[in-house]
Structure formats: C-alpha cells, structure tokens
C-alpha cells in the first residue's frame, strides 16, 4: 500500500470536519497530485485509423475531400493577399485616400504655396550687414518668381568691411581644399590636374618614400577596415591625416576607395602598405597635388577622416594667402597695396563667387549648403541660420519643381536597358515589383534587395525614372524631398534605422503619407512619404528581417513585413551586372508594364516615364 504524505492526511481531516457541519454523510478528498505512480508498460503512439475501420469508405472520402479543399482554398487566398497587395481589398478606402492624400495637382499646388511663403520670408527677413546674404539676394533675383527686392536691400553693404577678416580668422588649413576647389565638381578636378585613377601593374622595385600618398583601390573592402589597418600599421603618432572615400564607377560599376594619407615625416617602405588589407594592387600615384586630391575625394560626401588636413606642398605664407582669400574660385590675393575702392570691389566679387557656389550646392543638397556657410562664416551662420535655411530650401524647391515640370533628370544607367547581364530570376522579381508597386499612390510594398557588394544593387536602384531621395548613413532631413519620385536606402543595417535617427521604419518604407520628422538645424516638420521605397542590404545587415522570430512581438513584425515588403535574397550567382551573359532581344527589352494598377486608378508618375527616360539617355550617348 502506498504511503500518503502527512500533509495530505491533514487535508483529508480538514475536509471531513468541514463536511460534517453540512451533511451527515462523511466524505474524504485527497490531494492526488503528489502520489507516486509507476509508468504504464503500454507505449502510446499517434496513429491514423484506416478508412472503413470506423467510418465507411464513402463518408470518409467525402469528409477528407471537404477538409482538404477548405485548407487549400485558405492557403491560396493567403498567398494571394501577401503577394498581390493585401491592403487593397477595401476599394472605397483606396479611392478616398488616393483622391485626397496623393493628388498630383494638389501636391503641385501645395509645393507652389510653400515656395511662395519661403520667398516672402527671404524678402522680409534678409539679414543686415551681411555681405554674403546680399550676394545671395543678388543671385536670387535671377530665379525669384515673385516681386524683386528693393534696391537698397539688394546692394552690397560696404559698411561691413570686417566680414572677410572675421571669416578668415575662423578658417584653418583643413579648409583650404574647399576654399580653393569647392566650385569644381569631381570630373573637373580630375581633368584639370590629370589624375591617374586607373589600376597600375605591380612593379617589383616599387619604393614608398614620401610624406603624402594619393591612392585609389578597386576593392570591396570597407573604408573603415582600411582606415583601421593604416592606423595599426604605422601608429597614430606617425599619422597627420587620413581620408578615405567610397565611389561606384559610372562606367564599370565597380566599387573603389580613394585614400589620402599624410604622415608627420617621410616614410620608407619597400612593400605597398595598403595592398594587403584591400587584397589588390593599389595605385599609389594618382596625383602629386594633395590639396586637389583632398577636394576630389570629399566631393562624393561618403568619406571618413582622421586627424587634420595639412598640405605638404604649400608654404606657410601661401597658406595664409589662401586663407585670407577665402574664396572658392578666386586666385590668391596679391599683397600689393590696394585702394579702398579696389578692396571693396574685390570683396564684392568674392561674395558673388561664394553666393554662386552656395546656391549651386543648395540646388541639390541643402545640408551641404548649410555646412558650407557654417565653415566659411560661423558667426553669420549662428546669427542668421534660419534665413539661410529658408533661402536654400527655396532654391532647392524651385530646382526640383523645374525637374518635375520638365522631366529633366539625367541617369547614368536606365532600367532595363543598362542591365542586359542581369540574371533572369532577379530581373523577374524587379519587373514584377515595378509593375505592381512602383506607380502605387498608397501603401506600395517596399522592395528589399539582399546581396553582396559589387553586384549592381545601387546602380539599379538609381536607374529608375525620376528624382530619387537617396540615403546612405545617417538620416539627413535636408536630403528629403516630398516631390521625389521614389526613395532609396542604401547600406543601412535593417535594425539600425532608429539608431541613425530615421523616422519610424513602417512609416518611411510603406508610403504612409504625412509624418513628422526632425534633424539638426530643423525643428520637427511634416514630410509627405508618398514615394515607393527600395532598401539595399548586405547579407550581414539583415538582422531581424531574416532572423527566425521567437517572441510575440517578433512574430507580429515578421508578419507585417511579410505583407508590406517584397524581400529578395540574391543567390551567389545572381547580379544586375558582373559576368558576361548572352541575352536575347526579348530579354533585353523585358517589359515592366502590364501593371496591376487599374487604368482609372490614381498613379504616381507618367504612364510613359520609362520611355521618356530611355529617349533622354539615348540622346546623351
């Protein structure tokens, strides 16, 4: 007989006592949870009964067919919802939203009203005693569509004679490349100074005996890894300055790094010191002009720096002349005595050149224009940053409005004409997304392409029609344009969007309409996320997007992105361009038409925007 624990006996007595108060029939209840029982010798296994053993064959087959048909229909409906716009079932909601939030004419009218308001702000709040602001106003008179400024506000104020000296006092040698070559683009700098940007063959007797090196390397190794390797190799005490930028070749579509290293004293090496980390033979003799090279590699914006630039080619007196000139394009100022009138004319010319340059920057990037003013004239920037920001936003808006009206957006590559080597499955996925989502006006799926560097993801993403919001690195509100045709987020780890200050990823990638966003120089503002989005990821940066979900929240997010994104993981032999591949005429001209967007449905872009882009591209060839 099993032994019952004492606490169970006590519980039984309490139960018995309690029952006697309510009934004359005694009863006992025991806690059987802790009774030790031996396992049954019978092993139980799940099993299916055979047809006809319990239910007759006819009934069994009928029930089985009905159950399987329902499951099949359910799976097919789920696949249809996930792959063919699950959020477009409510036609009334779609019609209402398209008619109100994403009406092209309404958007153009709102843009024009915003630009008119900015124009009024510029005219009413122009800073006084600011020669650069006067120069900007003079340049604006050529593009303003509203009433011109009064004459007394447009003329240069000669009373502020100390602007140039105050400005120069804030400049250092680190700013010389921007001062001297800031008005030139990359191509002009390379042509003017005859840069050798091609790989060079290995020479056994190569020696590396110099203080400054201008290097280019056709490699897929990251600039961060190369930077760290140089620091570890030489030690920080021997390094004056390092700058490394990344560029994608316009013709070859190959990724390469531009490197500038300036040492505190001359080094003497027999072995190429960057070849090991880049895994290729680099060109160490791009140019002997360290100032022009520094300006060139910074033009792309995608660069990392260590230390402070100091030219080894300029003597101290030349450096002071450059700093005092503080002009992006004027030659060094002569030290001969000048009359007061000549000095005034010179300052006006310098202001005019700086105004022309900064407005050119603002046409494409408001952030770069603001950064230029901050470096050149920090005192004016601090006092009048709001006015400069309004002015640059106005110039940027007018430029993009012109591009929208004329369709004049030049592309280095166009889809699919420039990608005749693109592998078949990848091309089909891309064309399918273009057909069904690129022209959506609401809640289009974002396209997420996952693949290694050097397969042409970026070149493809920039090859679609229209102006593009392109982001790489941290969020920059001034690079956002409500009127862009689409948006591209390149090389941003999936789980790092919030860390890099981007707005909510669900809002940003799913065409979610008007949302709030903020950034430095800016208060919280409303932006209109009306563009379809493309996200480009390296395999190591996919994070939670491809990781098996565990928690309830992770499962919910996985289901959300399963419905809201077209995710394609490129195979090891897939690419937009890379290896020679025979293609037929039909493949080369594979169409991205036959859209699921209805003929009478509101859509983004023009119906013939791909053909228009092709004609413009062919005209440039």
From TrEMBL:
Locations of Low complexity compositional bias? Answer: 582-599
Renumbered to this chain, region (Disordered) spans 1-35, 70-90, 579-610
- Bias (Basic and acidic residues): 70-83, 600-610
Q: Output the superkingdom of the source species.
A: Eukaryota
Q: For bias kind Polar residues, which ranges apply?
A: 1-10
Report what the protein is called: Replication-associated protein
**Lineage, top ranks:** Eukaryota, Metazoa, Spiralia, Gnathifera, Rotifera
């Amino acid at each position: 007989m099993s032994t019952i624990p004492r606490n169970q006996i006590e519980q039984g007595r309490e139960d018995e006592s309690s029952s006697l108060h309510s009934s004359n029939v005694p009863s006992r209840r025991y806690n059987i949870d802790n009774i030790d029982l031996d396992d049954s010798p019978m092993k139980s296994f799940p099993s299916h009964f055979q047809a006809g053993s319990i239910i007759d064959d006819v009934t069994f087959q009928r029930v089985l067919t009905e159950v399987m048909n329902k499951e099949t229909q359910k799976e097919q409906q789920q696949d249809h919802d996930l792959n063919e716009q699950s959020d477009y079932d409510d036609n009334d909601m779609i019609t209402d939203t398209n008619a109100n939030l994403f009406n092209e004419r309404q958007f153009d009218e709102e843009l024009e009203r915003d630009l008119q308001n900015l124009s009024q702000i510029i005219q009413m709040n122009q800073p006084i005693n600011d020669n650069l602001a006067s120069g900007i106003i003079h340049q604006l008179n050529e593009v303003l569509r509203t009433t011109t400024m009064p004459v007394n506000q447009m003329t240069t104020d000669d009373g502020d004679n100390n602007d140039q000296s105050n400005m120069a006092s804030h400049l250092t040698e680190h700013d010389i490349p921007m001062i001297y070559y800031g008005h030139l683009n990359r191509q002009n700098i390379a042509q003017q100074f005859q840069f050798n940007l091609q790989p060079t063959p290995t020479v056994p007797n190569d020696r590396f005996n110099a203080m400054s090196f201008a290097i280019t390397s056709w490699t897929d190794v990251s600039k961060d890894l190369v930077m760290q390797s140089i620091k570890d190799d030489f030690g920080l005490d021997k390094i004056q300055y390092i700058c490394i930028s990344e560029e994608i070749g316009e013709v070859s579509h190959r990724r390469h790094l531009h490197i500038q290293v300036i040492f505190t004293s001359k080094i003497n090496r027999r072995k190429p010191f960057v070849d090991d980390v880049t895994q290729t033979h680099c060109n160490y003799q791009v140019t002997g002009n360290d100032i022009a090279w520094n300006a060139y590699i910074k033009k792309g914006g995608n660069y990392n720096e260590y230390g402070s630039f100091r030219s080894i080619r300029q003597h101290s007196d030349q450096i002071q002349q450059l700093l005092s000139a503080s002009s992006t394009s004027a030659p060094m100022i002569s030290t001969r005595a000048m009359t007061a009138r000549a000095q005034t004319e010179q300052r006006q010319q310098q202001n005019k050149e700086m105004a022309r340059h900064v407005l050119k920057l603002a046409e494409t990037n408001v952030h770069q224009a603001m950064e230029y003013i901050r470096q050149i004239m920090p005192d004016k920037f601090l006092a009048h940053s709001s006015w400069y920001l309004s002015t640059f936003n106005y110039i940027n808006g007018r430029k993009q409005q012109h591009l929208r009206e004329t369709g004049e957006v030049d592309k280095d590559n166009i889809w699919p004409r420039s990608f005749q080597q693109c592998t078949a499955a990848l091309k089909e996925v891309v064309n399918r997304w273009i057909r069904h989502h690129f022209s959506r006006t609401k809640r289009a799926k974002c396209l997420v392409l996952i693949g290694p560097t050097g397969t042409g993801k970026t070149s493809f993403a920039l090859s679609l029609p229209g102006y593009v919001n392109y982001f790489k690195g941290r969020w920059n509100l001034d690079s956002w344009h409500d009127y862009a045709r689409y948006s591209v987020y390149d090389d941003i780890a999936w789980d790092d969007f919030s860390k890099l200050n981007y707005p909510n990823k669900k809002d940003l990638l799913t065409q979610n309409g008007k949302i709030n966003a903020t950034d430095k120089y800016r208060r919280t503002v409303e932006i209109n996320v009306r563009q379809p989005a493309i996200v480009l990821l390296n395999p190591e940066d996919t994070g939670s997007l491809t990781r098996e979900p565990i928690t309830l929240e992770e499962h919910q997010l996985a289901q959300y992105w399963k419905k809201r994104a077209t995710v394609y993981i490129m195979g090891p032999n897939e690419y937009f361009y890379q290896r020679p591949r025979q293609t037929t005429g039909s493949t080369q001209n594979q169409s991205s038409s036959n859209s699921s967007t209805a003929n009478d449905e509101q859509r983004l872009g023009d119906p013939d925007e791909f053909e228009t882009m092709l004609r413009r591209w062919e005209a440039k060839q």
